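Model it.
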Amino acid sequence: MSLDKIGIAKRIAQEIRTGWYINLGIGIPTLVANYIPDDIDVVLQSENGLLGIGPFPKEEHVDPDLINAGKQTVTMLDGSSLFSSAESFGMIRGGHVDLTILGAMEVSEQGDIANWKIPGKMVKGMGGAMDLVASADNIIVAMQHVSRSGDSKLLSECTLPITGLNCVKKVVTNLAVLEIVPAGGFKLLETAPGVSVADIQAATAGKLIIEGEIPEMQLT
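Modeled.
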């Protein structure tokens, strides 16, 4: 068994600490907002100009004018604020975001990330991805461990256009939690429920570091 998108989001929510300002990227990362523990007080930031994002709205509370950077409708918590994208990127580039959670198409064992373009396919643009990876000290990637064709997305070197170099600190996939070590390599920290270390070895093309007994993720 492996995690679904909600399971990945729940596990990443365990990494969050009170007092942090957090940017959630498009895709799986946006789901994290729904699973932040009640006793953790954080501020979620969206690069289109919103500080204080709440959980996704129920259908009867949807406001089509209130969206995140991925064009998804969101809610605002008490004390939230709206401002221009220029001010928002000032926050990001000024190093005021404590944690950035991003999706990715590939991550290398050196912590490089490719998450904005597949050559030959039309894209809307870079968006805020390059600013986020260049400015954040703590980046966690939420992704599937392998592609739809079964190829590993955790590689020795990225093959797709690079978004940022040596910036990813941790990766949470449907199979495992892995840390990028300074010398290079994916250090296996936890396995998904029902997933063996051998399964993760077979799905990881980059250098995989296994030390001692590897615990299973605890999802609440």
